[in-house]
Amino acid sequence: MSTVLTGGSIAGPNGVEIADVLITGNSIVAVGTDLPIPEAARRIDASGLIIVPGLVDINASLREPGNEEAETIETGARGAALGGYTAVVAMPNTSPTIDSTSVVRDVLALAEGASCEVLPAAAMTVGRNGELLTPMGELASIGVRIFTDAGRGVQDPAMMRSIMEYATGLEAVTNGVPIVLAQHCEVDALSQHGHMHEGEWSTRLGMAGQPVIAETLMMQRDIALAELTGARIHFQHVSTAAGVEIIRRAKRDGLAISAEVAPHHFALIDEACKGYDPVFKVNPPLRTPDDVAAIKDGLSDGTIDCIATDHSPHEPHTKEFPFDHAPAGMLGFETALSVAMGELDLPLMRLVELMSIRPAEIAGISDRHGQLVAAGNRANLAVIDPEATWVADGAAMASRSQNSPFTGREMKARVMYTIVEGEITVDKGEATK
């Protein structure tokens, strides 16, 4: 079967052009006007809509195996597709941990037939406990390219050095594709009793806070270790102005590092916690207006490489606990694009780079995702209505959880179609599988 998107606005490096897109199988066959269209092709009127490469999320918790009450790979992938994502990197914070080839294979089997491609990341240490190296060579040999302890920073610098040194020797296994070590930067000794950002609002609320230095100290350590070992380090969910500046300086020095930010860290501030609503509890925590401004600057000038949702579902009843007992985390898939388009004053193509092209490169999947809308490229696409308005509602999302901090907020822009390997997984804003 073929599909043709007619009259859509296609985002490209030279701006936006109006053209038709013909898809046959899993590939884009032609882009242009007056295309020869097969009689049996499904025609989709994309007039007034924007056609972009499918989004790629390199930091999402899908909870399965082990925590299916909060999310499954099926429900998570469906939510991702509704948000325009054609590929998602699943974090290893599962039970059992994704720290062996058998669990990786289990996740891949569970992801067969999902609404988008799901790629498991693997833990750097067994059980994410920071003590024993995982069999990274075996994991890399079956396709794992991102290793992370997902929500836990490796505390021991000697262990982190060993991980980096081992990772640099795996290019023979990966045919030259570098292994990416994704670090959650948090020094536990500085942050372990904190539940929100340490600052004016934590003092007002009488809440123990997490200081900025808990993030930046580990960041500085890992930059030094990366310089020593030559390893490729990726900083997850950067939340502070100081962290952005550390990354900016390291890139000026020519280090091969990358970094992501989450939508809630450029759309929300710590004052949101003043009502003690645990939906605003996240790790790293919501920061100050100055941090938000610095993150936006980092996204604009290229210091920050990409936007990742940090999608973290939790069973609804756990987000009803008191703030200091509730788990940290927020839903992200279905609101990320709208939040980015609403909060960031960036050209459309820069958003495409941040949410599709660059994350696909970091994940090592740019052979099929994050490709421009052009003939010969894979048909992994999102079609967006930039003028659509809707009200976010965590309870109405595809996730088994409801913990969206944007519930009740009016959003602008919505994904109308998501196409994965030529298959329509979101049709007129509704999931098809």
Please give the structural blueprint.
Layout: E1 2-12, E2 15-24, E3 27-32, E4 42-45, E5 50-53, E6 55-60, H1 73-82, E7 85-90, H2 101-111, E8 117-120, H3 136-141, E9 146-148, H4 157-168, E10 180-183, H5 188-191, E11 196-197, H6 200-205, E12 209-210, H7 212-229, E13 232-235, H8 241-252, E14 257-261, H9 263-267, H10 289-301, E15 306-307, H11 336-343, H12 348-363, E16 381-391, E17 410-420, E18 423-427, E19 430-431
Parallel strand pairs: 1-4, 1-5, 6-7, 7-8, 9-10, 10-13, 11-12, 13-14, 14-15
Antiparallel strand pairs: 1-2, 2-3, 5-16, 16-17, 17-18, 18-19
Helix pairs in contact: 4-7, 7-8, 8-10
What does the model show?
With 433 residues, the protein is α/β, with parallel strands linked by helices. It has 2 domains: 2-50 and 377-388 and 395-431, Urease, subunit C, domain 1 (Roll); 54-363, Alpha-Beta Barrel (TIM Barrel). Helices cover 28% and strands 24% of the residues. The chain contains 12 helices and 19 strands. It has helices at 73-82, 101-111, 136-141, 157-168, 188-191, 200-205, 212-229, 241-252, 263-267, 289-301, 336-343, 348-363; strands at 2-12, 15-24, 27-32, 42-45, 50-53, 55-60, 85-90, 117-120, 146-148, 180-183, 196-197, 209-210, 232-235, 257-261, 306-307, 381-391, 410-420, 423-427, 430-431. Helix 4 (157-168) crosses helix 7 (212-229), helix 7 (212-229) packs parallel to helix 8 and helix 8 packs parallel to helix 10 (289-301). The longest helix is centred in the middle third of the chain and has 18 residues, at 212-229. The chain is globular. It starts with a strand and ends with a strand.
